[in-house]
């Protein structure tokens, strides 16, 4: 079968591989229907890499497919079921797993990053990592289950109420999904900030009420003008703009840090957090959010079509990576079969 493999630093190669066999009686084999390219995939393939990965691994951690084989002990799905994938493998035994915080597992791994993933015709994975989804959800929408689960995990920490205003910094896939979810949650003003006019335009379709380009506008002034006192909630989807978040949040407001940049060390005036009672929260992947996400996708309550900007076959994955790297896309969907 054709696969796209992270070969070594900076290199993704198309490779013919054997169709994988089930290794444990709790494994399932999935025929991949569609997968998508994530910002993390771009970071993995950067030189130097912005995200670690295991050389030789089939990439792709956001995918949907059909169960074609199950191990003897599998009970949650049967052959013919359509499923989306939770790519996080947890140990189940560490302090965090045992206290219900699997996203913080000390021995976790990720499908499509450290073990073989979904940029392939077939994928074998543990049955606990698959969730049934209705065949009525289009494949290009179903692949959004994983990134949407991370956004739901983040919004659960915020408790945004109708009437709240929100600033979202970074209008990539995560920023767009936050915009749509918080719109559905009742946020009145949603101010999206990005340097790309292309992404800002899509953010408008996602439900942003105000679009701010720091290339031509003073973000702090724009937010002050729209909100009066500053934003109730500021979300950094970039991973290095904590300092800017502090300039935009109102007294008593919340900051959610979503984007990840290992090297970012923004200077923060600690005094302001104390004096203005700012709540700062980090959020990482998701925790038990897949069942909720599947209900959201099946109910078609978001406007996810606007995020699907490209559809390609697996043979053209390099072209997809290039477009994604340049920021000329929101979501690229890859069809391996
Ligand atoms: Zn991802
Ligand atoms: Zn664990």
How far apart are the first and last residues' alpha carbons, in Å? 9 Å
CATH topology of the largest domain: Quinone Oxidoreductase, Chain A, domain 1
Molecules bound to protein: zinc ion
CATH architecture of the largest domain: Alpha-Beta Complex
- The proportion of residues in beta strands is 25-35%
Helix content: 25-40%
Helix and strand run:
EEEHEEEEHEEEHHEHEHEHEHEHEHEHE
Radius of gyration: 20 Å
Query: What count of domains describes the coordinates?
Result: 2
CATH superfamily of the largest domain: Medium-chain alcohol dehydrogenases, catalytic domain
CATH level 1 name of the largest domain: Alpha Beta
Biggest sheet layout: 7 strands, mixed
Can you walk through the features of this model?
The chain is an alpha/beta fold. The chain has two domains: 2-137 and 300-335, Medium-chain alcohol dehydrogenases, catalytic domain (Quinone Oxidoreductase, Chain A, domain 1), CATH 3.90.180.10; 150-282, Rossmann fold. It is built from eleven helices and 18 strands. It has helices at 39-44, 95-98, 139-142, 145-158, 173-184, 197-206, 219-227, 242-248, 270-275, 290-299, 317-326; strands spanning 2-8, 11-16, 27-36, 57-58, 62-70, 82-85, 88-89, 109-110, 122-126, 130-132, 165-169, 189-193, 210-212, 231-236, 249-257, 279-282, 308-313, 331-335. The strands form four sheets. Strands 3, 5, 6, 9, 10, 17 and 18 form a seven-stranded mixed β-sheet that branches. It has a six-stranded parallel β-sheet with strand order 13-12-11-14-15-16, sandwiched between helices. α4 (145-158) packs across α5 (173-184) and α4 (145-158) crosses α10. The radius of gyration is 20 Å and the shape is globular. 45% of the residues are buried. The model has no long low-confidence stretch (mean pLDDT 97). The structure holds zinc ion (2 copies). The site of one zinc ion has 9 residues, from α2.
């Amino acid at each position: 079968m054709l696969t796209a493999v992270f070969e070594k630093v900076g290199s993704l190669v198309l490779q013919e591989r054997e169709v994988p066999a089930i290794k444990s009686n709790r494994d399932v084999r999935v025929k991949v229907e569609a997968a998508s390219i994530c910002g993390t995939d771009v970071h993995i393939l950067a030189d130097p890499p912005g995200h670690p990965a295991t050389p030789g691994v089939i990439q792709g951690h956001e995918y949907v497919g059909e169960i074609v084989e199950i191990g003897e002990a599998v009970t949650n799905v049967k052959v013919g079921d359509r499923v989306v994938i939770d790519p996080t493998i947890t140990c189940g035994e560490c302090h965090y797993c045992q206290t219900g915080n699997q996203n913080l597992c000390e021995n976790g791994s990720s499908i499509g990053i450290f073990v073989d993933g979904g940029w392939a015709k077939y994928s074998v994975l543990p049955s606990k990592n698959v969730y049934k989804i209705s065949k009525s959800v289009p494949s290009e929408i179903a692949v959004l289950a994983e990134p949407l689960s991370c956004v739901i995990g983040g919004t659960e920490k915020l408790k945004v109420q109708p009437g709240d205003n929100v600033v979202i910094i970074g209008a990539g896939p995560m920023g767009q999904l936050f915009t749509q979810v918080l719109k559905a949650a009742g946020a009145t003003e949603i101010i999206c900030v990005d340097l790309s006019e292309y992404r800002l335009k899509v953010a408008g379709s996602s439900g942003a009420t105000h679009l701010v380009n720091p290339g031509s506008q003073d973000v702090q002034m724009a937010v002050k003008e729209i909100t009066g006192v500053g934003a109730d909630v500021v979300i950094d989807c970039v991973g290095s703009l904590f300092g800017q978040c502090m300039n935009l949040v109102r007294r008593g407001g919340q900051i959610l840090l979503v984007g990840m940049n290992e090297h970012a060390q923004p200077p923060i005036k600690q005094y302001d957090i104390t004096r203005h009672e700012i709540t700062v929260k980090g959020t990482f992947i998701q925790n038990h959010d897949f069942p909720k996400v599947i209900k959201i996708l099946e109910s078609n309550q978001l406007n996810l079509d606007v995020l699907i900007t490209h559809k390609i076959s697996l043979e053209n994955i390099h072209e997809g990576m290039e477009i994604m790297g340049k920021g000329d896309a929101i979501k690229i969907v890859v069809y391996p079969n």
